[in-house]
Design a protein that fits this description.
The protein is an alpha/beta fold. The protein has 14 helices and 20 strands. It folds into three domains: about 100 residues, Rossmann fold (3-Layer(aba) Sandwich); about 200 residues, Mur-like, catalytic domain (UDP-N-acetylmuramoyl-L-alanine:D-glutamate ligase), CATH 3.40.1190; about 140 residues, Protein-Tyrosine Phosphatase, Chain A (Alpha-Beta Complex). The strands form four sheets. The protein has a six-stranded parallel beta sheet, sandwiched between helices. Strands 15-16-20-17-18-19 form a six-stranded mixed beta sheet, covered by helices on one side. The longest helix has 16 residues.
Length: about 475
């Protein structure tokens, strides 16, 4: 169990909360539970009344001030500021706090500092980190470990910190925004892949982004920057960037012989062992995820049989090439989590059938050239949602030889699914994999995926398929 002595320095201190997200909120609840009561000032762009209604626990916290858009804060004397991942490190408020002597930290930094167990597996990557983290968690549980899963996957680690003992294992999905100011590295670090992502603001409520691809990679590197001897870095063999760290470097691949973990058909080669792997997860990218998870868990004490058994029953995560239904001979898949062209390309390559693709949406300054070429080569039927990025995607499709009449544009999920149902023929696939952010027509990728599944299930009422 955690000790509170190291937290006493926060008692009565002026603490700035930069964004009242779930990570900061769970940290504040944890401190309250430990009878550590700072004087909080909350910086958040949302109305105070809305936050009070959404989070009733705020009334029990010692909140002395609220700073919203346009408010002038005269108090410059904060002891420490805790930054939510969605809060940009380069924003004027944070720079102003630094200049006035405020220590800048984050809930994740504090978690690493006081966590009683150092058995931490951290997973990052442009895509695949949620699936890989979940696989590692399931495998370690199958191996009899007492293990917790948290981080960017939607579970703040402060929500289970009270339960952790020194021998437990913790698996953390870590986004680049959680990593960019992290001053600790996990004992076992995994980088699933690296492609351009988060290079422009997309989410109005979480406007963080990286100003360059170099800055994005630098943030990812913090997952191993502070590793020590005896630690492990597990990295995709497709990442050719120079990596320097004092621990052991291991590489994985979907099919590259000679790496430390790779597939030959359905046989997983794991260090000096090998076994046949049966999985419900489609696509080459999921072979990479499995190969990475296998390396991390064998280091943590799992054996290859436990790995194979856990993978066999793992059904994947919601909104990641998730099979929704079979209707009149047509399969419907929800891949709403695919918010970049690279992710949609990966999804397309997971299938050999004819595809009707639901794509387009909010702007992330991505390049659609390669996606458009693949869509034309595979004779994919495009259905495009309204959005700021959609005209650029449509333009690339036209350059590749699509006719205007072959591109279907819609302004709602209902219309998109109805159009796809009308165009689909038995044996084909309807794939929601937009290559764009969701904001505009939808609240987020989860709502977009949920609406897709809702509309698809309406079609089931008139069908005998399941």
């Amino acid at each position: 169990m955690t000790k509170t002595t190291s937290l006493n320095y926060l008692n009565g201190k002026k603490v700035a909360i930069l964004g009242l997200g779930t990570e900061n909120l769970e940290m504040m609840k944890y401190l309250l539970d430990k009878n550590v009561i700072p004087q909080y000032t909350i910086f958040d762009n949302r109305p105070q009344k809305l936050l009070n209604e959404k989070y009733p626990i705020i009334k029990k916290l010692s909140v002395s001030g609220w700073i919203g858009p346009g408010d002038n804060n005269q108090d410059k004397s904060f002891h420490i500021a805790f930054r939510s991942p969605g809060w940009p490190t380069f924003c004027p408020t944070l720079i102003w706090l630094k200049k006035n002597g405020t220590n800048i930290s984050s809930p994740m930094n504090l978690f690493f500092e006081i966590c009683p167990s150092k058995n931490i597996v951290g997973v990052t990557g442009s895509k695949g980190k949620g699936t890989t983290s979940s696989l590692i968690f399931r495998i370690l549980r199958k191996a009899g470990k007492n293990v917790y899963l948290g981080g960017n996957i939607g579970i703040p680690p402060f929500s289970f910190l009270n339960k952790i003992s020194s021998s437990d294992w913790i698996v953390l999905e870590l986004s680049s925004f959680q990593l960019e100011d992290l001053e600790f590295s996990p004992h076992i670090s995994v980088i699933t892949n690296f492609t351009p992502e988060h290079l422009s603001p997309a989410d109005p409520l979480n406007p963080n982004y990286h100003k360059s691809l170099t800055a994005y990679w630098k943030a990812k590197c913090n997952i191993f920057k502070y590793q020590k001897r005896g630690s492990f870095l597990i990295i995709n063999s497709n990442i050719k960037r120079n990596v320097r760290h004092p621990g052991k470097l291991l590489r994985f691949s979907a099919d590259a012989a000679g790496t430390d973990s790779y597939f030959e058909g359905d046989v997983l080669h794991l260090l000096k062992d090998r076994t046949r792997i049966r999985t419900n997860l489609p696509g080459i990218h999921n072979k990479e995820n499995i190969a990475a998870a296998a390396l991390a868990t064998v280091i943590a004490g799992a054996n290859i049989s436990q790995i194979a058994n856990a993978v066999k029953v793992f059904k994947g995560l919601e909104h990641r090439i998730e099979r929704v239904a079979l209707i009149d001979g047509v399969e419907y898949f929800d891949d709403s989590f695919a918010t970049t062209p690279e992710s949609t390309i990966t999804a397309i390559k997971s299938f050999n059938s004819r595809i009707i693709l639901l794509a387009g949406g909010a702007e992330k300054n991505s390049s659609f050239g390669k996606l458009a070429i693949l869509m034309k080569k595979r004779e994919i039927t495009p259905i495009l949602f309204d959005g700021k990025a959609t005209p650029r995607l449509k333009s690339e499709l036209l350059k590749c030889g699509y006719l205007h009449k072959e591109i279907h544009e819609v302004s709602s999920m209902t219309k998109a699914v109805q159009t796809a149902h009308r165009l689909a023929k038995p044996g084909s696939i309807v794939l929601l994999s937009t290559a764009c952010a969701s904001f505009g027509l939808f609240e987020n990728y989860k709502q977009r995926g949920d609406l897709f599944k809702k509309e698809v299930r309406k079609l089931l009422k008139s069908s005998k398929d399941i």
